[in-house]
């Protein structure tokens, strides 16, 4: 990837992207720039990855060809207000809940990609959705996709679907953590050691997810392949259906989506 990539904000997600870019060899450390209000954080990243740190956000905007916005939502006005970004640049925002229109109100008519990642990006298994404004050219969008594919999977969607993405894959890891915890508790109740039960539950979820992605088969088809007549699996599934687990998960995605819509309007 040509040019410099600059990070405005250097928290956990920013670091995950830096690590992914370096591990995928898309860009050398010398062409990664970072600025953060916490000077000690910049020194930490500089020592770990060998990237360049800059003295201010203005220098970062001037030197970066791709500018990744990774500040907290409550700091967006302070971070972007008065910042001058050239129209030849590409701006990528991972600021939760901040729309393309609001970003443009600070930065003007420049190419902007709004991104909804999730926390498994921290271990290279993220799911990211991107939405671009009308100034983003196809080549620039491919660069944005490549950045996020360095930490997992990435897709392009219309911006109006990003709240649903937040409700599903953005908040979704928490649903799965609860599921893993519950499965492990069930194992402990049946006499398994806690560490053994957690490993069994987590690897089972990981394996099942990979089966869906690798085979391309509908989850219902894969479920039926595990479910023998009058067997153990159908006994367990019957309890889940009786307790309304399927409906509860659907409603959880709906509730999180509605909350995301509300936050984006604040």
Q: Which key features would you list for this structure?
A:
elongated; Rossmann fold; 2 domains; alpha/beta; 266 residues; ProC C-terminal domain-like fold
Folded structure, characterized:
The chain folds into 2 domains: 153 residues, Rossmann fold (3-Layer(aba) Sandwich); 95 residues, Orthogonal Bundle (ProC C-terminal domain-like fold), CATH 1.10.3730.10. The chain has 266 residues and is α/β, with parallel strands linked by helices. It is elongated. The protein is 54% helix and 13% strand. It has 12 helices and 8 strands. The two termini are 36 Å apart. It has an 8-stranded mixed beta sheet with strand order 3-2-1-4-5-6-7-8, sandwiched between helices. The longest helix is centred in the last third of the chain and has 22 residues. Helix 7 packs across helix 12.
Number of helices: 12
CATH superfamily of the largest domain: NAD(P)-binding Rossmann-like Domain
> What is the architecture of the largest domain at the second tier of CATH?
3-Layer(aba) Sandwich
Q: What series of H and E elements makes up the topology? A: EHEHEHEHEHEEHEHHHHHH
Q: Give the overall shape, derived from the CA principal axes.
A: elongated
Structural class based on helices, strands and sheet pairing: alpha/beta
In CATH, what is the class of the largest domain? Alpha Beta
The CATH topology of the largest domain corresponds to: Rossmann fold
Kindly state the mean pLDDT as a whole number? 95
Q: Write down the oligomeric state.
A: single chain
Task: Report the strand count.
Answer: 8
Percent range for β-strand residues:
5-15%
Number of domains: 2
Q: What is the alpha-carbon Rg in Å?
A: 21 Å
Strand order of the largest sheet: 3-2-1-4-5-6-7-8
Roughly what percent helix?
40-55%
End-to-end gap: 36 Å
**Largest beta-sheet characterization:** 8 strands, mixed
């Amino acid at each position: 990837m040509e040019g410099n990539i600059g990070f405005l904000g250097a928290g956990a997600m920013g670091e995950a992207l830096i690590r992914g870019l370096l591990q995928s060899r898309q860009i050398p450390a010398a062409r990664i720039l970072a600025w953060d209000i916490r000077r000690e954080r910049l020194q930490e990243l500089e020592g770990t990855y060998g990237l360049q740190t800059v003295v201010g956000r203005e220098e970062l905007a001037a030197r970066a060809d791709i500018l990744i916005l990774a500040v907290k939502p409550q700091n967006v006005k302070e971070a972007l207000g008065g910042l001058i970004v050239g129209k030849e640049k590409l701006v990528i925002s991972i600021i939760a809940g901040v729309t393309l229109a609001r970003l443009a109100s600070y930065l003007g008519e420049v190419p902007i990609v709004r991104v909804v990642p999730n926390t498994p990006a921290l271990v290279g298994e993220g799911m990211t959705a991107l939405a671009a404004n009308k100034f983003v050219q196809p080549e620039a969008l491919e660069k944005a996709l490549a950045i996020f594919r360095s930490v997992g999977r990435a897709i392009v969607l219309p911006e109006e679907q990003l709240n649903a993405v937040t409700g599903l894959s953005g908040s979704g890891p928490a649903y799965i953590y609860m599921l893993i915890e519950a499965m492990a508790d069930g194992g402990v109740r049946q006499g398994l050691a806690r560490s053994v039960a957690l490993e069994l539950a987590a690897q089972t979820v990981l394996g099942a997810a990979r089966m869906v992605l690798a085979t391309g088969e509908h989850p219902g088809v894969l479920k039926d392949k595990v479910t023998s007549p009058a067997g153990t699996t159908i006994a367990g599934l019957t309890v889940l259906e009786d307790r309304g687990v399927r409906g509860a998960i659907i409603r959880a995605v709906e509730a999180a989506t509605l909350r995301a819509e509300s936050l984006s309007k604040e």
